Amino acid sequence: MELAQLLHERITREGAITVAEYMELCNTHYYATRDPFGTGGDFTTAPEISQIFGEMIGIWIAQQWLEAGSPHALLCEAGPGRGTLMRDMLRATRHVPQFHAHIRIRLIESSPVLQAIQRRTLKEMHPDLGWSSEVATLPSLPMFFVANEFFDALPVHQFFADGAERTITLRDEKLCWHDHAPVAREASPASCMFLRQIATHIRNHGGAGLIVDYGYTYLPEDANRDTLQAVRRHAYADPLIAPGEADLTAHVDFSTLAQEARVAGVQAWQAQTQGTFLRRMGAELRAAALCKTLTPEQCATMLQGLERLVSPREMGELFKVLALTSSLEKPPAF
Ligand code: SAH
């Protein structure tokens, strides 16, 4: 059955649904039925723009692993998309002594379509590659965790100033907002719960993590509190039109995630902007080195990609990087 029809029947039968329920139903359908990335799809993510993104994250992770004493460990990624970030991390770290031999790769991915693509991308790169639907069932080993544009896809609830929750209903057979005021607050219990599980694992078994996403560490008074957005074919769309056919996301609340991690007992380092993180990790030096092996046209394209990732006018400032560590030692770039 079409998702639109399913939603229609559900609302007719049970009444209005929350924004979080809507987001979850739409995104599950959306990711389960397509490969949404790149120019032919709906949106493009950092690892799909430049290999340098995954390389810098790989170096950060390998360095944390070395600091931890090169243990047998999990390299875990949530929402790996096409597997591009993991592929670039693995390529950048293949000369780190014992790193590949000591890690087991575990991917947390709900979409069967994307799982199949991840398997294709990564199966030649590492012998111990597996999928897990739950953090709680992962082996008791130190965990090195990464996620890019994962938390923004998890459901958010929206509330009005009087505390009532915003819902979606039907009017003249069409989905519509059941609104009586502007949105005053968002909350994502699903994100908090997921982060708490990762942080608890890192507290119990050691390790570190990087969470990259678009979002905020604090919201100014006059900020728009409704951050839900739909993106389809590289353009903003109305979230209620074509449910399950557009990518639904909300800004990630980094302060709340950091707080959640601290409560679970790990260090959460003040989120940096993506631009600052990549520069401090040496992205520009890496680009210069790469250019020596490229034609002038290839080099220009590569530099353009890097510019998109670091420029404050593009992804450099809106995107943030949050680091979690079990050690008290300040990690590089933070
Ligand atoms: N990290 C990738 C993909 C980002 S898109 C990149 O940067 O290109 C979001 C990813 O999270 C997709 O792989 C999607 O299928 C997955 N995802 C979304 N919600 C999920 C959930 N609840 N559990 C597991 N994976 C989920």
Task: Describe the structure in brief.
With 334 residues, the protein is α/β, with parallel strands linked by helices.
End-to-end Cα distance, whole Å, is 48 Å
Provide the gyration radius in Å. 20 Å
Described by strand count, sense and barrel closure, the largest sheet is:
8 strands, mixed
What is the count of helical runs?
12
Task: Kindly name the structural category.
Answer: alpha/beta
Write the layout of secondary structure elements.
Blueprint lengths: L2 H12 L2 E2 H14 L13 H4 L1 H17 L5 E6 L5 H9 L6 H4 E6 L3 H11 L6 E3 L11 E6 L8 E4 L6 E5 L2 E5 L4 E5 L1 H17 L1 E10 L12 E4 L2 E3 L9 E3 L2 E2 H11 L2 E7 H7 L2 H9 L4 H15 L8 E7 L9
Parallel strand pairs: 2-3, 2-5, 3-4, 5-10, 10-14
Antiparallel strand pairs: 1-7, 6-9, 7-8, 10-16, 11-12, 11-13, 15-16
Helix pairs in contact: 4-5, 8-9, 11-12
The structure holds S-adenosyl-L-homocysteine (SAH).
The site of S-adenosyl-L-homocysteine has 19 residues, from helix 2 and helix 3.
Could you walk me through the main structural features you see in this protein, from its secondary elements to its overall organization?
The protein is an alpha/beta fold and 334 residues long. The chain has helices at 3-14, 19-32, 46-49, 51-67, 84-92, 99-102, 112-122, 189-205, 254-264, 274-280, 283-291, 296-310; strands at 17-18, 73-78, 103-108, 129-131, 143-148, 157-160, 167-171, 174-178, 183-187, 207-216, 229-232, 235-237, 247-249, 252-253, 267-273, 319-325. The strands form four sheets. Strands 2, 3, 4, 5, 10, 14, 15 and 16 form an eight-stranded mixed sheet that branches. The longest helix has 17 residues, at 51-67. The model has no long low-confidence stretch (mean pLDDT 97).
